[in-house]
Amino acid sequence: MNPVLKDLIELLKLERIDDNIFRGQSRDIGSAQVFGGQVVGQALSAAHDTVEDRRAHSLHAYFLRRGDMTAPIIYEVDRARDGGSFSMRRVVAIQHGRPIFNLAVSFQKPETGLEHQAEMPDVAGPDGLQDLTDVAPEILQKIPEKMRRYLTDKRPFEFRPVSPMNFAAPKKQPAVKHIWIRAVDKLPDSNSLHQNLLAYVSDYELLGTSTLPHGLPFGRGMVQMASLDHAVWMHRDARVDEWLLYSLDGPNTSGARGFARGQFFTQDGRLVASTAQEGLVRVMTEPRDISPPSADNKQN
C-alpha cells in the first residue's frame, strides 16, 4: 500500500487504554496545529470501536481548543445509548488535561426504506484534471514556505479541483467549488474504515468555500480561519478509494464567521454523504501564521 495512505490508516487506529478510553497521535500536514479532520476521524474511530453491526449515519462536532501536534490525544467515549436500531456515542478529545474537541455520533442497524436524493452537479469528471499539488513553480515562488509545503507534500488522497484556485492571486468568485477526491491506493473492505477516512477528508476544502466571494489573500498570511463546528451525515455506503465528487457551497459569511455545506457523490451520481461547517473568518491587519483555506485552524 502507498506508505502515506498506510500511515493515515495507522493514525486512525487508536491505542485502546481501557474499554472506553483510547489514545491517538498526530501528524503535521502543514497547518498551524492538529488538522481538524484528523481529530474528527480519530474520534469516530474510537466510537466505532464501541459498537457492533451498526454504521454511523450522523456526527456533530465542536472544536474547543487548538490541538498540540507534539502530544498524544486521549479520546473518552460515553456509551450514551444502545437501542433496538440506534446507538449514540459521545466522545471527548483531551490534551494536557483539557477538552479540545467534542463529538456526538449516531449509529444505526442497516435497514431499507424510502429512497430519493439530490441530483449530482453537471461538472467535468476527474480524468484529465490536475491534482491540487500540481502548482506551477512561478506560483509556488510567490507564496510563503508553510503554504508551499502544504501544497506540495505527498498526501493520502488525490484532490482534483474542477476549477483550480490561484493561491498567489485569488479572485472574487461565487461561493461554489467542486473537487474530485480519492485515496491514493486500494483500501480494505471495511465500512468503518471508509467512514473514518471520509470523516477525515470531509474537513478539506469546506470552510474556505465561504470565503470565495471575497478573494482573500491567504498567501500573504492576512487571514485567520478557525473551524468552530463540523457535521457529517452518511446517507449510503461509499468507498473512498473510488472517485467522489465533493460539491461545496458557502451561502453565508457574517459576524466574522463563514458557513459552508458539502455533498459527496460517487461517479455514477449516488449521494453518499452531506456536510456542514461554520468557522471563524477574520482578515488581519498584519501577517500571521499561514493556514491554507482547506486546512482550517481549530482555535477561536
What's the SSE blueprint?
Elements: H1 3-12, E1 15-18, E2 21-24, H2 36-48, E3 55-63, E4 73-82, E5 86-95, E6 98-108, H3 137-140, H4 145-152, E7 157-161, E8 176-183, H5 191-201, E9 223-234, E10 244-254, E11 257-266, E12 271-283
Helix pairs in contact: 2-5
What does this structure look like?
This protein has 300 residues and is an alpha+beta fold. The protein has one domain (3-110, 130-283): Porin, CATH 2.40.160.210. It is built from five helices and twelve strands. The protein has helices spanning 3-12, 36-48, 137-140, 145-152, 191-201, and strands at 15-18, 21-24, 55-63, 73-82, 86-95, 98-108, 157-161, 176-183, 223-234, 244-254, 257-266, 271-283. It has a twelve-stranded antiparallel sheet, with helices on one face. Helix 2 packs antiparallel against helix 5. The model has no long low-confidence stretch (mean pLDDT 90).
Structural class call reads alpha+beta
User: How many discrete structural domains?
Assistant: 1
Radius of gyration: 18 Å
From the spread of the alpha carbons, the general shape counts as globular
Q: Report, as a whole number of angstroms, the end-to-end distance.
A: 37 Å
Helix run count: 5
Low-confidence region ranges = none
Which CATH first-tier class would you pick? Mainly Beta
Main beta-sheet annotation: 12 strands, antiparallel
Q: Name the helicity range.
A: 10-25%
